[in-house]
Amino acid sequence: MESGPAVFAGAALAVFGAGLLLWTSVRVLSRQPVAEADHPAAAAALTGLFGVISLITGVWVLLSG
After folding, report:
1. pTM
2. Exposed, middle or buried by CB within 10 Å (0-12, 13-18, 19+), for 17?
3. pLDDT at 15 over 60
4. In angstroms, rounded to a whole number, what is the distance separating the alpha carbons of residues 62 and 13?
5. How far is residue 50's CA from residue 19's CA, in Å, rounded to a whole number?
6. H or E element in which residue 3 lies
7. What is the pLDDT of residue 11?
8. What DSSP string runs through 4-64?
9. Where are the domains of the chain?
10. pLDDT tens digits for 17-32?
11. Are 33 and 27 in contact (CB under 8 A)?
């Protein structure tokens, strides 16, 4: 019974992380800013880091739930 919310949360985190990584990659490859009024390399690095963390956490929750 408790695996239902875990599957939903894991899937949501994994989809969010994958979407964030895809969006960041497209913005960086097209040389558009990832965040307004911020250093471009720092913004891309932090966004990529949070995307990877979200994706890994989502997969971990899916596999443990």
Report:
1. 0.87
2. buried
3. yes
4. 9
5. 11
6. helix 3-29
7. 95
8. HHHHHHHHHHHHHHHHHHHHHHHHHHTT--SSTTS-HHHHHHHHHHHHHHHHHHHHHHHHH
9. 3-64
10. 999 999 999 999 999 9
11. yes
